[in-house]
């Protein structure tokens, strides 16, 4: 299979490249905003599948760089879709969307100050109405709608994946799980985090990459559909960090609300994977305890090797 990948050097892309090595892989060589160059490269390659991962993904930062995020994430994607329409061999265009498109939901404010058991937390599915509430998620949802338009009007083939919060990164401690782990391993007394009360679900990197490989290599099973990833394992961030601390044996103090406030913070993001499982047979295999143990072990070894 001839596959064209954008964002091949990112978190997901770098793992996918290894897993898809048996296929003929081609990589975006230009900025998505360089419309003519991108179009010419796609035309020359004429791939069977386009995997579009390239994006600015730091949700918090999108509140301060609104036009940049819109330009790269939305306008860049529109350019890629329009260029891909000229590919005569195209079987599918797989787009990395986000669970962030669900944004504000009526239930979100209801759970903000309650201590419900995490097993009772509602999980979104593909029928849940999106209400994106950040420049990042607004741009991603706009891309979803553009793909639907392109399909209705031109028969353009697509698959949308609304990704869950992932963890298991080995070289990036910006995101909450890795940030907490590296701070706890590096400081025995204090760490500094953002909000404590939101509920989030998490998928381990191996399961995430497996889901992507499944979708990419089964175009007929997933074409012209939208999928959530799940798993529906929502946990309050406060509890998630407590679990990490217990595994590390860390007894210091967590200082919450130390990052810039996020306007209209979303207090619930949780999603199911039932539809994707029914279509392809894919299911997540790594439970949260195992995933955390692996992630902690990596960062501990990494820090030990530098000391």
Backbone CA Rg = 20 Å
Structural class: alpha/beta
- DSSP, total strands: 13
Shape: globular
The CATH first-level class comes to Alpha Beta
The N- to C-terminal Cα distance equals 44 Å
Determine the CATH topology: Rossmann fold
Q: Runs with pLDDT <50, length 5+?
A: none
State the fourth-level CATH superfamily.
NAD(P)-binding Rossmann-like Domain
CATH architecture: 3-Layer(aba) Sandwich
Question: Roughly how much helix do the residues carry, as a percent range?
Answer: 40-55%
The proportion of strand residues reads: 15-25%
Enumerate how many helices there are, as a single number: 12
Number of domains: 1
What does the main sheet amount to? 6 strands, parallel
The helix-strand sequence is EHEHEHHEHHEEHEEEHHEEHEEHH
Strand order of the largest sheet: 2-1-3-4-5-10
Report the mean per-residue pLDDT as an integer: 93
Report on this structure:
By secondary structure, the chain is an alpha/beta fold. The chain has one domain (2-306): NAD(P)-binding Rossmann-like Domain (Rossmann fold). 44% of the residues lie in helices and 15% in strands. It has twelve helices and 13 strands. It has helices spanning 11-19, 35-45, 59-62, 66-84, 106-111, 135-154, 176-186, 205-217, 219-222, 237-248, 274-280, 288-306; strands at 2-6, 24-27, 49-52, 92-98, 159-163, 165-167, 190-192, 199-200, 202-204, 225-228, 235-236, 253-255, 268-269. Strands 2-1-3-4-5-10 form a six-stranded parallel sheet, sandwiched between helices. Helix 7 (176-186) runs parallel beside helix 10. The protein is globular. The model has no long low-confidence stretch (mean pLDDT 93).
């Amino acid at each position: 299979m001839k596959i064209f990948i954008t964002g091949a050097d990112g978190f997901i892309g770098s793992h996918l490249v290894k897993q898809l090595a048996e296929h003929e892989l081609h990589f975006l060589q230009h900025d998505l905003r360089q419309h003519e160059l991108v179009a010419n490269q796609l035309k020359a390659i004429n791939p069977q599948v386009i995997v579009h991962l390239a994006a600015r993904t730091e949700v918090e930062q999108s509140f301060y760089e609104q036009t940049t995020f819109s330009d790269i994430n939305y306008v860049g994607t529109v350019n890629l879709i329009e260029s891909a329409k000229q590919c005569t061999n195209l079987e599918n265009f797989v787009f990395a969307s986000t669970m962030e498109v669900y944004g504000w939901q009526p239930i979100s404010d209801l759970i903000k100050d309650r201590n419900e058991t995490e097993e009772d937390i509602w999980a979104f599915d593909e029928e849940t109405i999106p209400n994106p509430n950040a420049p990042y998620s607004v741009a991603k949802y706009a891309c979803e709608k553009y793909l639907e338009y392109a399909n209705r009007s031109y028969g353009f083939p697509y698959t949308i994946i609304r990704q869950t919060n992932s963890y298991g990164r080995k070289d990036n401690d910006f995101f909450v799980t890795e940030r907490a782990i590296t701070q706890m391993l590096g400081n025995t007394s204090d760490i500094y985090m953002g909000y404590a009360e939101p509920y989030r679900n998490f998928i381990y990197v191996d399961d995430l990459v497996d889901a992507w490989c499944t979708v990419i290599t089964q175009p007929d099973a997933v074409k012209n559909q939208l999928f959530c990833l799940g798993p529906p394992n929502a946990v309050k961030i406060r509890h998630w960090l407590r679990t990490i601390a217990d595994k590390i044996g860390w007894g210091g103090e967590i200082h919450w609300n130390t990052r810039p406030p996020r306007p209209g913070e979303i207090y619930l993001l949780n999603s199911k994977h039932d539809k994707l499982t029914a279509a392809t047979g894919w299911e997540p295999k790594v439970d949260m305890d195992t995933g955390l143990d692996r992630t902690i072990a990596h960062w501990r070894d990494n820090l030990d090797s530098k000391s």
